[in-house]
Amino acid sequence: MGRVIACANQKGGVGKTTTVVNLATYLALSGAHVLVVDLDPQGNATSGFGIDRTALDRSVYDAIVDDSSLAALITRTAVPRVDIVPAAMSLAGAEVELATMDQRERRLQRLLATVRGDYDYVLIDSAPSLGLLTVNALTAADGVLIPIQCEYYALEGLGQLISTIHLVRDHLNPDLAIDGAVLTMADPRTNLSNEVAAEVRRHLGGAVFESVVPRSVRLSEAPSYGRPVALYRPESKGAQAYQSVATELRGRIEGRSGDPARPTRGRSDVSTNVSTSPTAGPLQHAVAGVDR
């Protein structure tokens, strides 16, 4: 069975879609067969692979809401061994429609059970919220990958995300692991970026990837060409960073027994019950409650 990984963070603009598109590409270039599920109503993962989401007749919405076959929605991308279940504008209304459905949190889990055996990895691009679509992603996933932008505001909601992961683990998916946190948009020339990175590593410890994704013009340009950065500017620093992230992810999963980010069944690997000293600085307050 392929490993299902939800890329989640309720804050927008932290690099979730960029991470999913480029991580899927480099996993595929290393020989893996990858399925991307675009569960973000903005559909940026879909367009990031060069698919016109406005021209789609059917999308992941039809599976989530109308119980259409997920296999029938799978679309090939320009990247060999990467397929996608695309998103369209209709997904924006899914949250409201899901609210009255039975087993509303488990609809994606049931759908993925029919196709995950055909893939080595299934990567879910979650919506920038903690609503039902994201809960569906977390319930269906084996692990969570958390992109964290190296900016102050990106830290403020981290405790809330970890709390949500714990709630899902306690009530819906007891085996949900934190596969890691990836620092994105890092700029080593600025004190703030370095301080944020240091605080995240101090609080999350071994869950944080050693690989860091820098700010990169090439990463920003690639979606406008409908290509992952590996097909656009493979020599760029952003491309090299995501290649490193993919290598590190595979190493963590294949060497799971030694991975500090993997919780034992029923244990919270990241606690949300830590208080912060009143004399702590603003960065410490921002990540209060997410100590290991």
Describe this structure in words.
About 40% of the residues lie in helices and about 15% in strands. With about 290 residues, it is α/β, with parallel strands linked by helices. The chain has a single domain, classed as 3-Layer(aba) Sandwich (Rossmann fold), CATH 3.40.50.300. Strands 3-4-2-5-1-6-7-8 form an eight-stranded mixed sheet, with helices on both faces. Helix 9 links the parallel strand 7 (about 175-185) and strand 8. Helix 1 (about 15-30) packs across helix 12. The longest helix has 18 residues, at about 235-255. The chain is globular. The protein starts with a strand and ends in a 6-residue tail after the last helix. Mean pLDDT is about 90; it is low at about 255-280 and about 285-290.
State the main characteristics.
292 residues; 13 helices; alpha/beta; 8 strands; 15% strand; single chain; Rossmann fold; eight-stranded mixed beta sheet; 38% helix
Structure in a nutshell:
With 292 residues, this protein is α/β, with parallel strands linked by helices.
pLDDT below 50 for ≥5 consecutive residues: which ranges?
A: 257-280, 285-289
Overall shape: it is globular
Computed over alpha carbons, the radius of gyration is: 18 Å
Widest sheet: strand ordering: 3-4-2-5-1-6-7-8
CATH class placement = Alpha Beta
Largest sheet: 8 strands, mixed
Helical content stands at 25-40%
What would CATH call the homologous superfamily?
P-loop containing nucleotide triphosphate hydrolases
- CATH fold naming: Rossmann fold
